[in-house]
Write a structure and sequence with these properties.
By secondary structure, the chain is of the alpha/beta class. It has 2 domains: 182 residues, 3-Layer(aba) Sandwich (Rossmann fold), CATH 3.40.50.620; 93 residues, Glutamyl-tRNA Synthetase, Domain 3 (Glutamyl-tRNA Synthetase, domain 3, Alpha-Beta Complex). It is 36% helix and 16% strand. The strands form 4 sheets. Strands 3-2-1-11-12 form a 5-stranded parallel sheet. Helix 1 crosses helix 9, helix 3 crosses helix 7 and helix 9 runs parallel beside helix 10. The protein is elongated. The structure holds glutamic acid.
């Protein structure tokens, strides 16, 4: 199987200097693995409520302005819901997904009764209220039965990140039974990303460090669905003047691609974040080609 990498932006806003780092890193990682390797772009529009009309197309134009051209037609998650349905059905058959009728308020109250912390990274650690049935409540979400799945091998899950090194997380304790699909229809990122990466044959996930915390959940889902686990590399984050990471949520501006020089300068800034020096060549394509050997030396990609 050829190495496959991907860039998977959510069309909730234009790409900014931070997301360009992830795009560039995933592209370089593929090119560093030889001519058979393929770079894919997936528009992650599964969470339809947060997506903005026309934003997927704008992101693809921003990438093209930087000579970051996918090797295949981009995939859109909204075209793939049948695959997510099938994965959820498989988990249900195995008793690893269950419906949950709890509102946020129900979860907060249950956590308060248990004297447990409410939040972790802005998410509630689900106390397992509906694990044994809805007790007449209407279903609001489908959850992964983390504790049940981990019963055979409780404790920390371990993996190695190509940049961050040895990682571990006890998903049952730190995250709990996480959501696979929300009541209002949208598929959760965790399920969609695992199904998509497997269907697209992704061997290398290279993305921003803000997503590193999701990796253990994704590895669990891969195991529960009998799917392979790719290698992971999480890239450094770009911080704004206020010290917070640049994000669409805090209104990070699109990088400038008004001229080829501006696009090349944006790439150069992204390369610097990755520890790559200035590249020769006036065009984006030349600069990109120049960074490939440096990436290979830094991140030790396997040449094919
Ligand atoms: N769609 C996610 C985002 O834009 C990235 C998903 C991933 O790379 O796994 O934050």
């Amino acid at each position: 199987m050829p190495p496959v990498g991907r860039f998977a932006p959510s069309p909730t806003g234009p790409l900014h200097a931070g997301s360009l780092v992830a795009a560039l890193a995933s592209w370089l990682d593929v090119r560093a693995q030889g001519p058979r390797a393929r770079w894919l772009v997936r528009i992650e529009d599964a969470d339809t409520e947060r997506c903005l009309p026309g934003m997927g197309e704008r992101i693809l134009r921003q990438l093209a302005d930087c000579a970051l051209i996918p090797d295949e037609e981009p995939v859109w998650q909204t075209a793939r819901t049948a695959r997510y349905e099938a994965a959820l059905a498989r988990l249900r058959e195995r008793g690893l997904a269950y419906p949950c009728g709890c509102s946020r308020k129900d979860i907060d109250e249950a956590l308060a009764r248990l004297g447990r912390q409410h939040e972790r990274h802005g998410e509630r650690v689900y106390p397992g209220t509906c694990r044994d049935g809805l007790r007449g409540k209407p279903a609001r979400a489908w959850r992964f039965a983390t504790q049940k799945f981990e019963a055979a091998a409780p404790g920390e899950l371990h993996w190695t990140d190509r940049r961050l090194g040895a990682q571990g997380q006890d998903v049952a304790r730190e995250v709990g039974d996480f959501v696979l699909r929300r009541a209002d229809g949208p598929w959760a990122y965790q399920l969609a990303v695992v199904v998509d990466d497997a269907d697209q044959g992704v061997s290398d996930v290279v993305r921003g460090e803000d997503l590193a915390d999701n990796t253990a959940r994704q590895i669990l889902l891969q195991r529960a669905l009998g799917l392979p686990t790719p290698r992971y590399l999480h890239t450094p984050l770009v911080r704004g003047a206020d010290g917070h990471k640049l994000s669409k949520q805090n209104g990070a501006a699109a990088f400038d691609t008004a001229t080829p020089e501006a696009a090349r300068a944006a790439l150069e800034a992204a390369a610097r974040v990755l520890g790559l020096g200035p590249a020769a060549g006036a065009s984006c394509a030349e600069a990109l080609a120049g960074w490939v050997p440096a990436w290979r030396a830094l991140y030790n990609s396997r040449p094919q």
